[in-house]
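Ticket opened by: R.M.
Priority: normal
Category: complex prediction / small molecule

The reporter submitted a protein together with calcium ion and asked that the result be attached to this ticket for the collaborator who will pick it up next week. Submitted input follows.
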Amino acid sequence: MGGVLGTGESSRRVWMPETKIEAKMIEAMKRRASQGSSMRSFNTIILKFPKIDENLRKCKSIFEQFDEDSNGVIDQEELKKCFNNLDIAFTEEEIKDLFEACDINDDMGMKFNEFIVLLCLVYLFKDDPVALQTKSRIGMPNLEATFETLVDAFVFLDKNKDGCVSKNEMVEAINETTSGERSSGRIAMKRFEEMDWDNNGMVSFKEFLFAFTRWVGIDEVEDEEDNEEGK
Ligand SMILES: [Ca+2]
Ligand SMILES: [Ca+2]
Ligand SMILES: [Ca+2]
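Result attached by the on-call engineer:
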């Protein structure tokens, strides 16, 4: 048919990483995916939400500590110091790339939710054999266990182990759990659309993390509004 927008479900999309950091993310995720996931179902992931939420919120104090001028965002200079203190050995360029990848609102600063995503990506990259100079831990056991859970959840969703979650994979994961209830498919699609920010039909680990911070309400500080009912 040759649909211009390429919305055909049958055509397998090929993920084209636009930046070095995205390519690195896909590679790291593929490597991790080859080790399999300890998650058994989508429900086991959801059951872990409260614990993950709690642990992520604890790193607010880390965030505040590194936001030296207390303006609510960590800028690149502050981030460099942060990495130094945490013994995360990234090059200037790597820090810059990571920073830009996570600065989704383009304000040249890491807000709390962006910072969490950034740290989680650092965690993911720590196994990279070509980045062995990176110290093996971030040095925060609780947080690392939480990050591992998030990685594990993503690996569970990524059935074909290509480093991304497609719409079909999302639907499959949710249907496995709810054994064919009609509404579950719709929920899966909705969840997927929430995650796929750039609308390219694929969810990267970064998108997954950002969606996650929204699901557990970590980005609500952004507009300082109480969660009102609605969208
Ligand atoms: Ca700051
Ligand atoms: Ca930002
Ligand atoms: Ca996949």
